[in-house]
Amino acid sequence: MARQALYRAYRPRRFQDVVGQDAVVAVLRESIRRQQLTHAYLLTGPRGTGKTSLARILATAATCDAPDDGEPCGHCPSCQAAQSGGHLDIIEIDGASNRGIDDVRDLREKVLYAPAVGRRKVYIVDEIHMMTEPAFNAFLKTLEEPPPHVVFIFATTAPQKLPITVLSRCQRFEVRRLPVPLIQRHLQWIVEQEGAIAETAALLRIAEASDGGMRDAESLLDQVMAGGAVTDARVTEVLGGLDDSRLTGLIRALLAGDVPALLAAAHDAYQAGADALQLLREVAVRLQDVWVGQTVGDAASELAQTRTRQVQDVLPAQADWFSAIERLAEAESRLRGAFPAQLVVELALVRAAGALREDRRAADIAVPPTPAAERVRPGLAPAPTSPAPRPAAADRSATARSAAPRTPPMPADASGERPEVGRFRRAVDRLRKSRPMTAALLVGATVNRRADGLHVQVPNVFSRHVLTQDVATGHFASMVAAVHEEWGEAIAVVVDDVVAADPPAAVHQTTASTAGDARDEAVRRTRALFGDQVVVSVATGSGRVAATAGPAGTDAPEGDGRQDDGQDHEGGASDGI
């Protein structure tokens, strides 16, 4: 007799055996306890998270003769028939194989018959999103008003493919991915039940590779156990990645910016038989853990804190974590081409190391940004005023030389730090405990207190976009609340770009050495517009060239009929030449 796979042998048979879906289990148990079952349920979520298991437990409890506190008793003939898969009133249908309108017509006829042995007839339809549109339309009336003895339980990994008319007729339950520590503990329990031996690091690697799916984790554990003891080296062979010691060494070289050591570690990984795709993913996950551990500190998970401590001595003070992980993501897409995989991985690692060493902070936090670069959220800072009239060209250089910040910088404290900098740092520290991801977006940010409020310069483009554009996440509102709490008043908060200084005023003027070229170009363009049979007169003044035209045989006016006062006259024809 063939050995039964672990994911089948340890499939939960009662609600209390389901791992990590407490919210869904609580509602379904209460429905059984009160005997208030509805006619249609929809279970959605990623693969391997327990949708079909929940559907079978619910069907068993719905047909049980004497449910025990919302659980199937497991002893009555109905429960025993359900556990053996031979219950006449529990019908499982594969939506991918029975997806046509003829299959729905056959189902509509069968639901009219009374249950064979129990009180209810339960239909479990797996992957219902595979049904065709005509089949859905033919099924709607039966789904809306089924016979009183019928219960439908649907399961799908793609609820967005279901018509809204089907979604609105079902009670929907979201079955979520499982966290890594929970999967690891369950795998440890299975190993103990099987009487096997497993290393903690090996079970952790399996839990991380399962991507939140318990079935994938159990299948991978079954594969590793077939070769004997569950060790980290054995898991590495199965996954095609790196063992923990080699991966830690590679991450240390990456964080330290040691390119020779990094390339040597990557070469050693390939010599050990590491898969390129798996290597990139493991490095990205490890970088994510270190980033979170460094950013949020004690609020991070135990795993993230442990991995951060392993590389604490080589962590850069300021790093562009977003860019580094983006380099790895870009390399993953390139692996699908014909370019050598080893070279793709090595280039990505070197580029990620370079991004981690970059310091994108503003050079001087005391210099206020230009008004054109300001990003102001509505309702939280004064609206920008209309632009002032442009000064005369002759006065621009003098204005640029005499320009000063609108608000003088606040005096520094005894440590040489301006008061608003210390206050903002304390506000960010407060966010690390309540909103760690918001604090992560403010890494490298600088502040400046001005008359219209507190200006925050965020150097990272992605972080600035999330703060100012993605209102649903609430990051900006959380930052404003922390600032208000620290300052003790409703101070306006403005998020600015980090921009370069204005170009010198001299670039806006035409020098004497180029006046002749500008005059010739003005004459050429004027004749090209009005024809050669015109009289063209040219007037220059204050670094400015103007040309006017009159009909042939007439006296052209002096200049443009106006005294050249050295100002830019908006809208005049001469401005367009």
Can you tell me about this structure?
The chain is α/β, with parallel strands linked by helices and 577 residues long. The protein folds into five domains: 6-174, P-loop containing nucleotide triphosphate hydrolases (Rossmann fold, 3-Layer(aba) Sandwich); 180-239, Helicase, Ruva Protein, domain 3 (Orthogonal Bundle), CATH 1.10.8.60; 244-357, Zinc Finger, Delta Prime, domain 3 (Up-down Bundle); 364-382 and 418-502, DnaA, N-terminal domain (GMP Synthetase, Chain A, domain 3), CATH 3.30.300; 508-564 and 572-576, no CATH class. 46% of the residues lie in helices and 10% in strands. It has 23 helices and eleven strands. The strands form three sheets. A five-stranded parallel sheet has the order 2-3-4-1-5, with helices on one face. It has a four-stranded mixed sheet with strand order 6-9-8-7, covered by helices on one side. A two-stranded antiparallel sheet has the order 10-11. α13 (259-271) runs antiparallel to α17. The longest helix is centred in the middle third of the chain and has 21 residues, at 276-296. It is globular and about 95 Å long.
